[in-house]
Amino acid sequence: MAPVEQDALAVREQLFHERVRECIICALLFASLYILCHFIITQFKKHTDFTAVHDDEDAVVNRIALGLCTFTLAVALGAVLLLPFSIISNEVLLSFPQNYYIQWLNGSLIHGLWNLVFLFSNMSLVFLMPFAYFFTESEGFAGSKKGIMARVYETSVVLLLLTLLVLGMVWVASAIVGNDAASRQSLYDLWEYYLPYLYSCISLFGVLLLLLCTPFGLSTMFTVTGKLLVKPRLLEDLDEQLSCTRFEEAAVSRRI
């Protein structure tokens, strides 16, 4: 074998090992986040009567919805922790550039994590969370055989109709806002134009909802904190309190 072919084979083998290492690290990180989110959701969710029945159809639906919600929460938590993880990994690499055991914290791993978080966040936002909601509310079409698959069919149809409705609204909004004739005539640019536009609209709606709910959340937080904390009594006048106590004692004594 020629030296050039040996070098190319060594490079391909190294890339393969790096890819396998990145996949294992991503799987371990997501598994850890999934387990943590499962404990968080099971701690705060409402315990229903059918969760204890293992053969009941509603219990199976509840477990599937719980898994989808746990997956979505794990993706959201990973998106929140991704920026601090990137900063910390960069600082560790700059502090220990020659350490062999931390070389897996490279730019390829961070780039792969960003791509996975972006993909799974879009999938959770557009498909998984609506599917979980409609799946828990579904009962199957009228006249069809009852079961899990009937609920899956109904949920899929409702989700498809909702997707068509949202895409139609986005198409109408883009036709109203845009001035070109192409935006009014066809939907050929669905992947390159309408899906990013839809993602921007959903992000804008989320930001507006955050701005609307943040003041109420802060006011509730300060109210609860004020009830839990004991107010300091450093500025109170003790002589005035003693005088008030003497007056109250005298009034009680006269009544007696």
UniProtKB/TrEMBL annotation:
Keywords: Cell membrane, Endocytosis, Endoplasmic reticulum, Membrane, Receptor, Transmembrane, Transmembrane helix, Wnt signaling pathway. GO terms for biological process: receptor-mediated endocytosis; Wnt signaling pathway. Belongs to the LIMR family. It comes from the Eukaryota. It is found in: Cell membrane; Endoplasmic reticulum membrane. This is LMBRL protein. GO terms for cellular component: endoplasmic reticulum membrane; plasma membrane. The lineage of its organism: Eukaryota, Metazoa, Chordata, Craniata, Vertebrata. The gene is Lmbr1l_1. GO terms for molecular function: transmembrane signaling receptor activity. It is a multi-pass membrane protein. It comes from Pteruthius melanotis. The chain crosses the membrane at residues 24-44, 64-88, 108-136, 157-177, 197-224. Signal peptide: none annotated. Its main location: membrane.
